[in-house]
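Usage

Read records sequentially. Each one opens with the input sequence:
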Amino acid sequence: MKHLCWILMCYLISTSMLQAESIPNVIDGVQPKVVKLFGAGGLKNLAGYGSGFLVSADGHIVTVWSHLLDSDVVTVVLSDGQRFYGEVLGTDSRLDLAIIKIDSQNLPHFDLKQAVSVGPGARVLAFSNMFKVATGDEPLTVVHGVVSSKTELSAKRGRYKVPYSGPVYLTDAITNNSGAAGGVLTTYDGKLLAMLGRELQSEESNTWINYAMPIPELQGAIEDIIAGKFTRRDPLTSTNKPEAMFSTLDFGIVLVPNVVFRTPAYIEAIQDDSPAAKQGLKPDDLIVFANGELVNSIQNLEQVFAQAIPGDDLQLIIRRNEELITVTFPIPRK
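and closes with the structure output:
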């Protein structure tokens, strides 16, 4: 029995040493597949930077669906410092997912078909541009951790429940700080596992969640967007129109004339002594997010106001020149 224990101990020690020696090689292999993103942001804790990862040799990048993409230009920086202008090919807010394309070829990338799944106790690595540690060819952050569990996500952003409610990996490492969203979670040998999500809080405990969304949950939408076959499933474009309880005018917001299908939600005027006036909104402000959802048009914005719940709050993110400003309105009880 003593000999068996000794052999087992030696095996575990040697395995641990081999893993320790191979991790630097794994990190060197993964870093070129992860990119730094720079776009909209700047005020009210909205960072102007984030992360993404390459999934094709010709420049398709997976990242989270966020305010960062509300910019005329999204700058993509590769691991060697090369800079590209990225085009947003498509988004799916239900999955918190976006795909960006850059004009390049022969890029190192993850193969979605080789993504794996793991269970509790699996050792993992998280790669991201957390806290903007990299702006050029500097290495990204690498966090070591263990999968605590795989469970259904029940989380909120502020007071609003996030649209994604599928399975996630919860980790015992701090993986979801500012700038980490859109980064990648891999196994200890560098195999693709999941995409790091945005900063969220648990609905039950109000504590911050360190989580990642498994690639199999995202793969279908990713492949459809890249192939140009994606049918948008954003809740803001739903054909099920609720009975309108509120409109933008109820808050003193006068929008520009809605002349085309996707007229941007620019403010034309603010009524005196209205809630919007008290919040400091101004003509020419562009409403880009409403209750955490990207506003693509005036029609989208009116749908959000129509669905507002009396007694709750309505949060808007406004773009004014190069700044993003967050305002919150209490919803009156009718």
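Summary fields computed downstream for this record:
- The chain is about 15% helix and 35% strand.
- Confidence is low (pLDDT under 50) at residues 6-15, 234-242.
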